[in-house]
């Protein structure tokens, strides 16, 4: 469970977070979307103790992030946007150090490390140096590491950035499976289909403010069901419709070429903020 | 608490082990050069405190290198922090500042000890064999490396980039390495210079290490002074860990 109240962060004159209020119940897979610089990473960094907040409060499973810092830190696992592994150490050494940092016993560490490596399909690379792994393997290793101490909450900051479509889907499946075990997941992403596929609820963040929070389906329903993309004087224009009949009626007699498709989250984001998530 | 301290220390030791050949090689180069170059330059006849120059130099190199190698932990912390972002692993883990600092400082002391052993072995090649078996000798080294490893961790938490760290090394550590009684006796300098050098921790260590290895009585107030400076830096470092958050 994550609870955030009136959270603010300023970097000098820059307002990175401008009063965030949020409640993520236990076991939910929550996606946090927004364009570059919206404040997604800043939110995660504050919740995980990497950055100081300017104002407001937050609790992780009931523990205040600063007043009960060490207790709060035992609750979560963290996968950062950039891969932060010890490249000169082996796969299992990386996980072992992590387990020790969380106070796990030797037998517990041994069991969980094997379990997590099997889980992310890296068990046969256990003794490899991290620098010899591919980008996708390193990414999976960061997820395994974050899960070694069986956290109740998992923060994933753009876990699939820079990976090919096949590996991305594999990581999606992994995330879904982690959620099934009851873990609360807080995910940021640029890939709108990622949020659409994975999330129970999404929040759209823009310039440090949450614009809207809802279930992906309800958000899309607010926009419509069908969309027609059309070129209009050199600009792409999209029109939304509740039903297929309305859409069909619109295109009857149109001379310009068009594409008829289902509404997606990107459309909702666009119509709510006038901005694209991808920049 | 203990488990976490071990985690921090163990990580540094595993990395050190992986680089051990390169590390030993790089720790040997400059002492070897000093022994050869200055040893020949000073000749056999010159006496320093009643010893040959090479006998005088070895304790100085021990003091210098236990300082620079302990201080070098700052470079590793910086690389982990600014380049690999591994420091975030510690920041996001339920690890107290004390456990983190203690782990890194002990890693600095370990490196320093390794470099000292290398220097003593190099000394043997030049037929320099002094009295290394005393508590006074090893305690001085331990205190020297404790002071500078603690200072290194504190600074590594305060600097905003690796370049800042390099600045500190060239303006504070390197001058001290040359002036703090490493290569020549401080009492051959003018009195005003001696007064300034009295305030440098390295002056006290090189004096203590030299007295111990020559079998002369040691001045325990130097040890006390080093211990106090070390404790101040150590608690300073614990305090500085929070400052590393942006
Ligand atoms: N250490 C810092 N110093 C100064 N400004 C910062 C710092 N970190 C972030 N910011 C600013 O805070 C704002 C939010 O940044 P943040 O990294 O949280 O965005 P984001 O939503 O994660 O973006 P992206 O999608 O690019 O990862 C940006 O304007 C950024 O420039
Ligand atoms: Mg980000």
Topology readout:
The complex is a heterodimer of chains A (279) and B (246).
Chain A: E1 2-11, E2 14-24, E3 29-33, H1 40-47, E4 55-60, E5 63-64, H2 69-75, E6 76-79, H3 91-101, H4 106-119, H5 135-147, E7 153-157, H6 165-180, E8 184-189, H7 192-198, E9 201-206, E10 209-214, H8 216-223, E11 226-232, E12 235-241, H9 244-251, E13 258-262, H10 265-273
Parallel strand pairs in A: 3-8, 3-9, 6-7, 7-8
Antiparallel strand pairs in A: 1-2, 1-4, 4-5, 9-10, 11-12, 11-13
Helix pairs in contact in A: 3-4, 3-5, 4-5, 8-10
Chain B: H1 2-18, H2 20-42, H3 53-71, H4 73-83, H5 87-91, H6 97-125, H7 135-158, H8 162-179, H9 191-197, H10 201-213, H11 220-241
Helix pairs in contact in B: 1-6, 2-3, 2-6, 3-6, 3-7, 3-8, 3-10, 4-7, 6-7, 6-11, 7-10, 7-11, 10-11
The complex binds adenosine-5'-triphosphate and magnesium ion (MG).
Adenosine-5'-triphosphate is lined by residues 11, 14, 16, 34, 36-42, 81 of chain A.
Order of helices and strands of chain B: HHHHHHHHHHH
How would you classify the quaternary structure? heterodimer
Helix content of chain B: over 70%
Mean of the pLDDT scores of chain A? 92
Indicate the radius of gyration of chain B in whole angstroms. Answer: 18 Å
Give the helix/strand class of chain B.
mainly alpha
**Biggest interface found:** A-B, 28 and 25 residues
Estimate the mean pLDDT confidence of chain B. Answer: 92
Order of strands across the widest beta sheet of chain A?
6-7-8-3-9-10
What is the makeup of the main sheet of chain B?
Answer: none
The SSE order of chain A reads: EEEHEEHEHHHEHEHEEHEEHEH
Radius of gyration of chain A: 21 Å
Bulk shape of chain B: globular
Number of DSSP-assigned strands of chain A: 13
Count of individual helical segments of chain B: 11
Bound ligands, each once: adenosine-5'-triphosphate, magnesium ion
């Amino acid at each position: 469970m994550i609870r955030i109240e009136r959270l603010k962060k300023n970097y000098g004159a820059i307002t990175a977070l401008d009063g965030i209020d949020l409640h993520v119940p236990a076991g939910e897979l929550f996606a946090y979307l927004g364009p570059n610089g919206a404040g997604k990473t800043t939110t995660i960094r504050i919740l995980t103790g990497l950055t100081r907040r300017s104002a407001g409060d937050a609790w992780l499973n009931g523990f205040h992030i600063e007043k009960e810092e060490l207790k709060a830190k035992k609750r979560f696992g963290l996968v950062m946007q950039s891969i932060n592994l010890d490249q000169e150490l082996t796969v299992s050494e990386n996980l072992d150090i992590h387990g020790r940092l969380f106070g796990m016993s030797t037998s517990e560490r041994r069991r969980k490390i094997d379990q997590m490596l099997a889980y992310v399909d890296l068990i046969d690379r256990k003794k490899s140096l991290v620098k010899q792994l591919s980008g996708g393997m390193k990414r999976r290793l960061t997820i395994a590491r974050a899960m070694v101490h069986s956290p109740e909450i998992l923060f994933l900051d753009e876990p699939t950035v820079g990976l090919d479509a096949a590996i991305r889907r594999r990581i999606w499946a992994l995330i879904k499976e982690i959620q099934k075990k009851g873990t609360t997941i807080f995910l940021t992403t640029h890939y709108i289909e990622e949020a659409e596929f994975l999330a129970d609820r999404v929040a759209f963040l823009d310039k440090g403010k949450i614009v809207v929070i809802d279930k992906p389906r309800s958000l899309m329903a607010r926009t419509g069901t069908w969309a027609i993309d059309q070129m209009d004087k050199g600009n792409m224009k999209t029109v939304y419709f509740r039903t297929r009949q309305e859409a069909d009626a619109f295109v009857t007699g149109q001379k310009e070429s068009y594409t008829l498709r289902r509404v997606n989250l990107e459309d909702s984001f666009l119509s709510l903020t006038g901005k694209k998530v991808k920049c | 608490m203990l488990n976490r301290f071990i985690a921090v220390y163990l990580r540094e030791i595993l990395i050190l082990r992986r680089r051990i050949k390169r590390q030993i090689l790089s720790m040997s180069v400059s002492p070897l050069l000093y022994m050869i170059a200055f040893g020949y330059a000073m000749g056999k006849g010159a006496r320093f405190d009643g010893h040959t120059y090479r006998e005088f130099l070895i304790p100085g190199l021990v003091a210098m290198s236990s300082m620079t190698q302990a201080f070098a932990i700052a470079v590793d912390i910086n690389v982990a922090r600014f380049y690999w972002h591994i420091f975030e692993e510690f920041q996001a883990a339920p690890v107290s500042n004390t456990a983190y600092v203690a782990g890194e400082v002990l890693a600095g002391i370990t490196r320093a000890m390794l470099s000292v052993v290398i220097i003593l072995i190099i000394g043997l090649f030049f037929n320099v064999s002094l009295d290394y078996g005393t508590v006074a000798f090893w305690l001085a080294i331990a205190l020297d490396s404790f002071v500078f490893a603690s200072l290194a961790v504190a600074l590594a938490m305060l600097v905003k980039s690796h370049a800042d760290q390099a600045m500190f090394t060239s303006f504070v550590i390197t001058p001290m390495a040359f002036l703090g009684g490493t290569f020549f006796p401080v009492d051959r300098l003018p009195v005003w210079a001696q007064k300034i050098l009295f305030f440098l921790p390295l002056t006290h260590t090189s004096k203590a290490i030299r007295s111990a290895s020559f079998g002369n009585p040691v001045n325990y107030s130097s040890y006390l002074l080093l211990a106090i400076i070390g404790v101040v830096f150590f608690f300073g470092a614990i305090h500085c860990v929070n400052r590393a958050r942006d």
